[in-house]
Write a structure and sequence with these properties.
- The structure is a single chain.
- This protein is of the alpha/beta class and about 160 residues long.
- It has five helices and eight strands; from the N terminus they run βαββββαβββααα.
- The strands form two sheets. It has a four-stranded mixed β-sheet with strand order 1-4-3-2, covered by helices on one side. It has a four-stranded mixed β-sheet with strand order 5-8-7-6.
- Strand 7 and strand 8 form a beta hairpin.
- Helix 4 packs antiparallel against helix 5.
- The chain is elongated, with a radius of gyration of 18 Å.
- The relative contact order is 0.14.
Length: about 160
């Protein structure tokens, strides 16, 4: 198990499913690993450290009383292509729920944005009509579909 050596990391509050969340997340992303886990006297996990694709996280099992995940905080995943979008989307939405514009909530209630690099490219297109068409197409989607973004941009240009 690795210990996080950076002074900055994201800390997430789970009701009581931290150990399950760490196992789930680290199974999805490359360059990921579970780190140290602090356990209560009964063996349940109190806190944990883990790394997702090189990014450090910490978490606690704080119970349901004080905090819940909201869309105000999300983790954004920039994807190289549609295959990567589909892989992350399917793995993270399993047991959760789809939202709009590339957003989803996973089975733990944490919000994710699964965004193909191609969307950023199209939104930055020097032709404002193409960029706007790509934006309008994205606004109609749950999972972002690169081919549909490109078709919308091409129709406008």
């Amino acid at each position: 198990m690795t210990r996080i050596d950076t002074p900055l990391s994201t800390c997430l509050w789970f009701d009581d499913r931290l150990e399950e969340a760490v196992a789930h997340y680290t199974s999805i992303f490359p360059r990921s690993s579970a780190g140290a886990m602090a356990r209560n006297s009964d063996g349940t996990v109190l806190g944990a450290e883990w790394v997702l694709d090189g990014m450090p996280f910490r978490g606690i099992n704080g119970g349901p009383v004080h905090a819940h995940f909201t869309e105000a905080v999300s983790i954004s995943v920039r994807c190289a292509d549609q295959a990567e979008v589909d892989r992350y989307w399917d793995a993270l939405v399993d047991g959760g729920e789809e939202s709009r514009c590339g957003w989803l909530k996973d089975r733990f209630g944490l919000s994710w944005q699964i965004v193909p690099q191609r969307l950023y490219d199209l939104l930055g297109d020097p032709d404002p009509a193409r960029a706007q068409a790509a934006m309008q197409a994205m606004l109609t989607m749950s999972r972002i579909v690169v081919a549909d973004l490109e078709a919308a941009a091409d129709a406008a240009g």
